[in-house]
């Protein structure tokens, strides 16, 4: 048996053979406490009883389990020798009966990687907290099971835990005789079962709804976090959004929430944003804000709450057969999260954030060599793990927004309602959804699916404007182009907006909505309109495409972008300009100049924060070396100017303060940051709370203005789990060769760090201002990654392989070294090769942009500087 990496073919074979009637899972978690050091390996007892049927008596199959040891296995009352049937990942089951009962008694391991049953020791008070995280296939680290989404079954959990703890699971639970017993679930997949246990701070509320048939739906609500975060937990706002979401989905789905209670747990060291376990949704605890944040953070949290809630229908009630159709849950939840945010909460501008921030993730993913259709070819579990990406989420959601424009919102929602009723508690494929949408819309869903779901790549749309002698539009056309490797030209429902200046404003004066299909589409509705200063293709963001500009429009944006009055249109223009920068069609220095001149005019706080991130990325990755110092000074001066000019106490002031810390580059910049920390400097209205203190401390440490002693003092102020993560990141950010060597050893030569501290150490290690210190690690990276992939859990391996790629060694030599590794490791795990290929593509894109920017300035790509190579030729130039 091939071990942990279950293939699609194996899953199909097993699903054709077996059906599952139910699970009883008994966990004994009392071993989680003890001396509470958190360092020693620990196990817990897991006893699983599975009742299942085989349609071929006498056949063989297997059950999944990843555990240090198995105590006993009983199949239909017959004891099996664990040493013979268990290989560390699977238990072989031979001579199956028509009806079977399997009992597995195992010692399973607590996790420090966020996979399976994660154990966290709070450094603040020594308390132990547990939670599970399984997607796509880590339930097998906690109990024996058939770990594939189409073998659904009801689950009954019972848990023994320390006396002072509370335990939660998917169903309602109560404690009797020292054992927590939970109500049986509806039929669900293994990966969405859940257990949370520990001394969590827990608050409750209730949602009620008149169903209109004389009955009232009542859903108990709960929300929890670590005790140390309780003073910061704004549970009232969490419950507000939860109730608004439940109202919205009940209004639109016509299918009452089917899973009883609705708990939401904010847990430590979480790898994901959140997970849709029915009845017990888990979130990363960073969504509890310890300091002042902007409304963009609250909007993002609301979006995640609603995304996970949408999964109760798309994913939990109706589940894909296999991970090929992951989009059936993730694309829909991503779309529905924003759809509900706009329709039900105070975040009525959430589509702006989606257009500017979320779709940027999709555009990047769709131009990588690993791009894939939304309906992907998922061969095995490693493929599945990597396909939780910008295509499955954000491109899929963008395409669904296009689908709503294509079939109409009413037909789309009616299709969803029929889909739920027809397939409740079952599993579906692409065709099941398309068939109901064809019923409700009368549109050709097969053709739409071929173009949008079953092909990869992103189209670009460019306007062409011809004027008549009177200065009016004689012809306006939209030219559609595709990448050579992905030549599909798709049908787009788009709006085209015409803009002109009126006084000091840039406003839309005409709009047409039309279908664009093929390489060139003439928009007859706009013929005769007055000549525009800006043509915005995909105005209102109806479709998924890269927006391009004609020369007149681009010239207008260069001079008047800040005058554009509509916030969504402005966000779309910024996104288009960023895509031009990444595609080496707009010099990075020009993009930075636009941010310097116009970011201060941005009213949408989420867009402003995205501009800050893009400007920093443009400087670090896309600007030529010869210009970087100039760019650093420009951004630092701009950030300080706009920080001082922002309204005192406003979220814009906070955003500019954080950005200033990111781009600070001079002695005077660092003196100001230090003064804001120690109280000798002040900016009116800026409250330097503990979270902002860490933001200011990090650049001081990275540039040598603060040392380990200062970090120890800061940790003493904030001796919490959050503070410890900040300290670990800052420790790794110190500008010292010895520090980098220590961080490397912790990440690559040891597995002692938890998942959260791995992330923190990588973030501190990889500092743009320390390129020279990182030169030796390019060669070490390529020598280590195959071993890391083999030895570590997939989550930690992904973090290390992605996080330590030498992207800051942005030289052709690093590209050559990457190509050499790929050529020499053609038989390496496909998922590992995919990560390296993606990193290589990002590096090549950076080098193209640097070369294009330098040529625009009339200098070589490296300016006056020579490449500084390591002895092996793998290293790269330094600043």
Word description of this protein:
- This protein has 879 residues and is α+β, with helices and mostly antiparallel strands.
- Helices cover 42% and strands 20% of the residues.
- It is built from 28 helices and 28 strands.
- The strands form 7 sheets. Strands 5-4-7-2-1-10-13-12 form an 8-stranded mixed beta sheet. The protein has a 5-stranded mixed beta sheet with strand order 15-16-17-19-18, with helices on one face. The chain has a 4-stranded antiparallel beta sheet with strand order 8-9-14-11, with no helix packed on it.
- The chain is globular and about 90 Å long.
- The chain starts with 7 loop residues before the first helix and ends in a 23-residue tail after the last helix.
- Residues 859-879 have low confidence and may be disordered.
Please state the overall shape, judged from the principal axes of the Cα atoms: globular
Q: What structural category do the secondary elements indicate?
A: alpha+beta
Low-confidence stretches: 859-879
Whole-number mean pLDDT: 94
Oligomer: single chain
How many β-strand stretches? Answer: 28
The major β-sheet equals:
8 strands, mixed
N- to C-terminal distance = 51 Å
The main sheet orders its strands as 5-4-7-2-1-10-13-12
Q: Please state roughly what percent of the residues sit in beta strands, choosing from under 5%, 5-15%, 15-25%, 25-35%, 35-45% or over 45%.
A: 15-25%
Give me the Rg, rounded. 28 Å
SS element count, helices: 28
- Percent range of helical residues: 40-55%
